[in-house]
Amino acid sequence: MGISRAGERLGVGATVAELIQAIETADSKGAMVVAVNCLAAAKDVAALPTLITVLGYNNPGAAVAAVEGLVALGHDAVPALLEQIDGYNYGARAWAIRAVALIGDPRALPVLLDTAKGDFALSVRRAAARGLGTIDWALLSAEQAASGQRDVLEVLTAATADLEWVVRYAAVAGLQNVAKALIDSHQKPPILLCLHQVFQHDETAAVQARARMALDALESPP
Amino acid sequence: MGQEPLANAEGESLTVEQAIENLRQTADIGLRYYAAWWLGRFRVAEPEAIEALVDALQDEGDRAPDGGYPLRRNAARALGKLGDRTVIPDLIRCLDCDDYYVREAAAQALESLGDPQAISALRGLLAGGVAAAAAVPDKPHLVQPYNAVLEALGTLGAVDAIEEIIPFLGHEVAQVQNAATRALYQLTGDGTYCDRLVERLQAPNLQLRRSAMMDLGAIGYLPAAGAIAATLAENSLKLIALQGVLESHLGQTGFPQARLTDEARQVLVLMDELL
Q: Among the residues of chain A, which ranges form H helices?
């Protein structure tokens, strides 16, 4: 079987070039997943272009492994991922959004804002809404961070009215995370107001419950 | 609802009036089919919409290559979402339709509407028991939509049907076993039935894992939350299954009047990780 052969060939000590070679010659979906996992585990920037290429292979198992590898590379992976998001391959784009959302690099802010606002796939809007909540604001100047947070709050507040419950759920989770990292404390009352409205009026109990949990965390004395 | 167009995720939009008109006209089959879906998707429960959907259950104009009735299927699905129980007799008549997929959609709609008056008609589709529950030659389905029927009987509280359902635990198709397991849990409250579904989350076959996961979500079995989050399947489906588990627990614990329980918080934390 391809899987066991790939596993043997890719033992400890394989070079990145060998690991990339194993992906290029994988002879089954399973072998591909194993090979991508090995390359992801190497945590080497030389693996970056290959991991990004794998996002476009329409192999969800391999894409999950590649996203893990990209997230492990962190900020080094962001410029190439943002380039990929501009590309035309829709499937790859969705995975790249997921990766930049998990990395939390502020350079991804514009694309996450656009995606949370208007992407047609609910799973992508969901991932972007989550990513807006986990931006690493410390990497920006206080002024840039305050302005970025204003944009994020506007988009996430609007996303609490999305047609899909899971996007509203992700928006609530995102709002809670931004509220914990606020530069401008004047922005907290509108967040609480929005969360109260979701708690009281959302048609989906799971979303109401997420808003309740956010309110419990944000309103309790520190 | 007014004239405000409602857009779906693909950006297409209709008004309620247009959708009802599209469903009533007969010139364009595609427009009718889409309108029936749309009315269900946007929960348009106005009397005109219900009436047009009930009419569509009798449609003869839209025929699939296999002889089926695509518009009837969509109309039955939509009626299941609209919560109007006056259509139950119309849906019960659909359980006799030649088209398997119309029967399946009707059984699912009757489950959603939650009215026990559908029980005896649904039990009728189990006639002959497991011995009769064979595959149709050259078709990808069994002679009846057993999954939908068993699930509906569980949800509708058909305790008189327990003896008829038990043999389906041994049906050769794993999804049918799952449906019987889930119904028997609902009808008996015996958690050992759910443990069988939790074991299925480890099955090598992705379809089986998905099916067990959605069953656990549908019956809201809280102890399965961690296993659902950990199974190898799409995050989108895991989130739907965990939503089912969470909401069933919320209902039992008096949310939103009552505070969130620790169990509810644990499920929410699992869901956050899957976004």
A: 2-9, 16-24, 29-41, 48-54, 60-73, 78-85, 90-103, 109-118, 122-133, 142-159, 165-180, 188-201, 205-219
The CATH number of B13-113, from 2.30.30.100, 1.20.59.10, 1.10.357.10, 1.25.10.10, is: 1.25.10.10
Dihedral (Cα; A36, A37, A41, A42), 10-degree rounding: -30
Q: What is the pTM of this model?
A: 0.80
Question: Which pLDDT value is given to residue B2?
Answer: 38
Compute the mean pLDDT over every residue in chain A, rounded to the nearest whole number.
89
Is residue A159 within 8 A of residue A168, CB to CB? The reply is yes
Selecting from A122, A206, A208 the residue whose C-beta is nearest the C-beta of B9 gives A122
pLDDT digits (tens, 9 = 90+) for A67-124: 999 999 999 999 999 988 876 677 788 889 989 999 999 999 999 999 998 877 888 8
In a domain, A53, yes or no: no
CB contact under 8 A, B256 and A208: yes
What is the pLDDT at residue B234?
85
- Most distant pair of Cα atoms in chain A: their distance: 61
User: Mind telling me how many Å the CA of A174 is from chain B's nearest CA?
Assistant: 10
Which residues in chain B touch residue A120, judged by CB atoms under 8 angstroms apart?
A: 9-11
Low-confidence ranges of chain B (pLDDT < 70): 1-12
**Probe site for chain B from A172, A213, A216 (most B CB atoms < 10 A):** A213
B245 CB within 8 Å of a chain A CB: no
Domain that holds residue A89: 74-219
Of A126, A173, A206, Cβ closest to residue B246: A206
On whether any CB of chain A is under 8 Å from the CB of B275, the answer is yes
